[in-house]
Amino acid sequence: MKPILEAIDVRKAYAAHVALSGVSLSIPEGSIFGLLGPNGAGKTSLIRIITQITAADEGEIRFRGERLNPSHIAQIGYLPEERGLYKKMKVGEQLLYLAQLRGLTRSDATQRIKQWLNRFEIKEWANKNVEDLSKGMQQKVQFIATVMHQPSLIILDEPFSGFDPINANLIKDEILELRKQGATIIFSTHRMESVEELCDSIALINRSRKVLDGPVGLIRDQFKTNTYAVEGKGKLIVVHPDFEVVEQTERENGHFYARVQLHAGVRPNDLLRYLINNVEVDSFRELIPSINEIFIRRVRETMPETLVEETV
Fold first, then answer.
1. I need a labelling partner for 90 at 20 to 30 A (CA). Which of 5, 154, 234, 292 fits?
2. Would you place residue 308 in the very low, low, confident or very high pLDDT band (cuts 50, 70, 90)?
3. How far apart are CA 3 and CA 288, in angstroms?
4. 300, HSE (Cβ side, Cα atoms, 13 Å)
5. Same domain for 264 and 250
6. Residue 170's domain is classified under what CATH number?
7. Taking all residues of the chain, what is their mean pLDDT, rounded to a whole number?
8. Where are the beta strands (DSSP E) in 189-266?
9. Rounded distance, CA 238 to CA 247, Å?
10. Residue 267 is part of which domain span?
């Protein structure tokens, strides 16, 4: 799959602060790409360069093979974490104004505004001032403004902030639909459960550097520890050269839960045969680390020792 966007050795500094230090990324077209990192890692600096709010000190951004330039702005939609709507302006008027700024005719903009307001069930708010809307409704309006011109690349910075679970699911469905229609989405968030649910690939930036990237499934596989969760009934005593019990908890009525780690080269079936011969097995599954667990581990691994000691 060809990349829609490439960052090549991008560097950015503000006075003495280094925001990005040689960051390179390749974002496949038609994918949902998670841009992750703790606060202050450099994510927003990279987004601001992609959206041409600021420029890189070194390196370059390429959009569909071309060096990023002002002609690409119309193909990008950006929902910043800090929302920015005109509070005193009516919802419909504001959406029309923003759509025309992005090159839509008045007729096309009006049609699309009606479609989106109906889809989000807020058409009755079209003639209300933005300040009269709840935070969640304002978020919907800003989301509409971001995607209404049908950009090829959509950048969403904490898109679920301020939403209740029902409306968060509504936005998730719209993100998936936009991807289905061919859009590429860069998705920046601290909600790791959303990353696992939505993202095809991710990149993790920490302390201005990229420390991890790739497809979500492959990354989770890379961090596997060959550990299995076992639930069953009986007395589990593992004294075996091929596996090791790293945790065991007794439960009611003679049941137990255990985590068993296989040594290198040992197959899951070897452990399962041993268990069947010694206990009654109710559940047997591999423990694959979540993106949240991987995020925390990699951030800690890339922190200076003095900072790690302070966080322990």
1. 154
2. very low
3. 29
4. 11
5. yes
6. 3.40.50.300
7. 90
8. 201-206, 209-215, 227-233, 243-250, 255-262
9. 11
10. 225-286
